[in-house]
């Protein structure tokens, strides 16, 4: 879910996938004590059983009181859509644990969410901390670094085994001292979403296996295919949606990105950044990109109007495309493997030490990120699991997406996730990424800004932010 969760996300995923509301629990007449709990929930300002009426209210009908007449409220703080409500997981957990009431506080702005979370963890104000707080992968290095002492080590929590996750996923949430401060939720492995009809009109193959072979092994081949597309492109279309999206995809496949293993910014000398920048600039200056900023209003409109032949597509991006392309795009889009494996997006669940119910929160976080639950979230929203057993499950391996011409999305994305090369993540990576993909490359593609001038503006901005 990008900050799109993304990975959008997204994805996003992530950001990226559209919200759906989980069905309310049905059944016979409510017991008197359950009705008391429902009235109490209503007093908080949200209509009972209205799952989407208030982001911080009960996400499903609270269950009966415990035999001791008490309930524990666990608040889950998220950004974007994590799919727990959509998959009915909160209601399922409360049915199994009558003493627990789960509420969710969700926001769509991941940067605002992170600012509030860091302020709360460091005692500098912000919104009250939730018992469970999601952390986007772009910020996980801060959670394992300067904020690690504010978060619970979850490796001893019941049901938690670091080996349950993809090795690179659990490694991202492990501190230098060996503490596991985050439990992996989804991932954002790469593929390429493409318009079959536009490829056919441009004289290119449209079968997904043939399309994948066009650029297999190297992102530079992807740009070469773009040049072939442009030579016969249908009117008012570009080969790919944005230079920034291409930059993120190419960089995600590189072993060294913005920071080194010590968390130090090395983007100015990084071979991975140079490769991604050069390819993206080449595509932008050749007219292969739209010149639009991803996820902005103009980008949304262009997607609806069939303006893009391809979109580099982490798993959460499928939800973004189906949402904004709408019914008119159904069946015209397809998915092919990316030139090289990479990951864009994903998140973790953490438990702040300041919480009143750390043990219970850890148990809930472990259950929500267990393989069985990750598979259910994938079925409901398309957020790809990070747990190995979930990726290998029949629910994932046999999954297809009707919107994308019944593409075998489960297999395509699971195969990509297994081959992702881990790369160091630094505290300032998100800021550098935004400066490059959302500003500098947009200037190059849309305004014809000289690439050297655009790059110098990035360096100046990051230098000012870091004070170095």
Automatic annotation (TrEMBL):
InterPro entries: Bact_solute-bd_prot1, SBP, TAT_signal. Gene3D superfamilies: Periplasmic binding protein-like II. Residues 1-34 are annotated as: Disordered. This is Extracellular solute-binding protein. It comes from Kitasatospora arboriphila.
């Amino acid at each position: 879910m990008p900050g799109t969760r993304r990975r959008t996300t997204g994805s996003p995923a992530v950001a990226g996938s559209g919200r759906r509301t989980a069905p309310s629990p049905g059944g016979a007449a409510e017991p008197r004590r359950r009705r008391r709990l429902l009235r109490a929930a209503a007093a908080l300002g949200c209509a009972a059983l209205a799952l989407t009426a208030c982001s911080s209210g009960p996400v499903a009908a609270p269950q009966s009181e415990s035999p001791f007449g008490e309930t524990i409220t666990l608040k889950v703080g998220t950004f974007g859509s994590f799919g727990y409500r959509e998959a009915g997981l909160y209601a399922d957990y409360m049915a199994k644990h009558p003493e627990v009431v789960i509420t969710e506080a969700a926001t769509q702005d991941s940067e605002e969410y992170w600012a509030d979370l860091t302020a709360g963890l460091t005692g500098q104000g912000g919104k009250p901390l939730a018992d469970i707080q999601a952390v986007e992968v772009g910020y996980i290095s801060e959670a394992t670094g300067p904020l690690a002492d504010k978060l619970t080590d979850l490796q001893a929590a019941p049901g938690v085994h670091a080996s349950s996750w993809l090795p690179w996923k659990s490694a991202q949430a492990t501190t230098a001292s060996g503490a596991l401060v985050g439990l992996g939720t989804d991932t954002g492995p790469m593929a390429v979403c493409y318009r079959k009809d536009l490829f056919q009109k441009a004289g290119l193959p449209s079968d997904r296996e043939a399309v994948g072979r066009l650029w297999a092994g190297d992102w530079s081949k992807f740009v070469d295919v773009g040049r072939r597309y442009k030579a016969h492109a249908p009117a008012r279309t570009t080969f790919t949606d944005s230079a920034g999206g291409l930059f993120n995809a190419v960089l995600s496949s590189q072993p060294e990105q913005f920071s080194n293993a010590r968390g130090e910014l090395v983007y100015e000398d990084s071979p991975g950044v140079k490769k991604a920048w050069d390819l993206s600039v080449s595509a932008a200056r050749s007219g292969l990109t739209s010149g639009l900023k991803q996820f902005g209003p103009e980008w949304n409109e262009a997607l609806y109007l069939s303006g893009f032949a391809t979109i580099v597509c982490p798993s959460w991006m499928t939800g973004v495309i189906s949402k904004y392309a709408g019914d008119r795009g159904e069946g015209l889009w397809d998915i092919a493997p990316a030139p090289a494996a990479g990951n864009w997006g994903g998140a973790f669940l953490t438990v702040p030490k300041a919480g009143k119910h750390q043990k219970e929160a850890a148990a809930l976080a472990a259950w929500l990120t267990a393989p069985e639950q990750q598979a259910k979230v994938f079925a409901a929203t398309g957020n790809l699991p990070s747990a190995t057993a979930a990726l290998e499950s029949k629910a994932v391996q046999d999954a297809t997406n009707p919107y994308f011409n019944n593409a075998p999305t489960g297999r395509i994305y699971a195969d990509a996730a297994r081959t992702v090369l881990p790369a160091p993540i630094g505290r300032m990576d998100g800021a550098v990424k935004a400066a490059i993909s959302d500003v500098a490359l947009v200037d190059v593609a849309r305004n014809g800004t000289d690439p050297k001038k655009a790059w110098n503006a990035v360096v100046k901005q990051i230098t000012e932010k870091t004070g170095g």
